[in-house]
Amino acid sequence: MKKKNIIYWAVALVLVLVTAYSTIHVHNARQVNDVKMQSESRKQAEEDAQQKRLLADQKKRLIKPASWDKPTLSGGYPDISKYAHAKKKEERIWIEVNLRKQRVYIRRGPYTLYTMYASVGKNYKKTKAYQCTPIGHFKIEKRRGVSYYDPTRGYGARYWTAFKDDGLYRFESVPFDENGKVIKAEAEKLGQKVTKKHNIKAYGSIRLSVPDAQWIEENIPAKTRVVIDSQDDKRDAWEYLKVD
């Protein structure tokens, strides 16, 4: 009987120790999780504050009205060369195209470094397939150039940079005619609201002012990510990209 009692007491002691260990472990895990959540919350608050400051600065520098032969913002373009070999997603340069706002954003991780007026066709139900703007995630291609003219479409552009289908879809300037003169009726749509009646027939390409298109052609390297938002999606594109 004494031997059995010793065994019972030993088992009970083990159970008490296991319970105590489990309680301490759970408590510590909760503390670690709380610290992690607080850290993430502080980081998010700092990111939000920095993004707000950057956008407020760009709003002040916005040149109005939009002009096809001027940059979107005064004060010059951002120096992105220092991020050329960034490994972390938070440090990498990427481009967001917002159909709803008719804007292109040069971004580094969660931050917007530069805002550009854009003319982007919206994909209404009767939009022909070859005129649709591709929606989703893409990458800047190697193909680019200082000008082109397409007689089948009756216009060309300056400073083009491909992002899909080997040059079929591009960032490019507002359109120019065969004589090298800007097509004003189309250039005036830069940054303006698009409707079914006044849609941008750019065959899926993204139109910018000449200086903005030139900056992208000269500064954005191949393989840079491009995110084209759905016109109905109001979430920050970074939320998708950071988990992609």
From TrEMBL:
GO terms for biological process: cell wall organization; peptidoglycan-protein cross-linking; regulation of cell shape. GO terms for cellular component: extracellular region. The keyword Transferase applies. Pathway: Cell wall biogenesis; peptidoglycan biosynthesis. It comes from the Bacteria. InterPro entries: LD-transpeptidase, LD_TPept_cat_dom, Transpep_catalytic_dom. The keyword Cell wall biogenesis/degradation applies. Residues 94-228 form the L,D-TPase catalytic domain. Keywords: Cell shape, Cell wall biogenesis/degradation, Peptidoglycan synthesis, Transferase. One of its GO terms (molecular function) is peptidoglycan L,D-transpeptidase activity. PANTHER family: L,D-TRANSPEPTIDASE, L,D-TRANSPEPTIDASE YCIB-RELATED. This is L,D-TPase catalytic domain-containing protein.
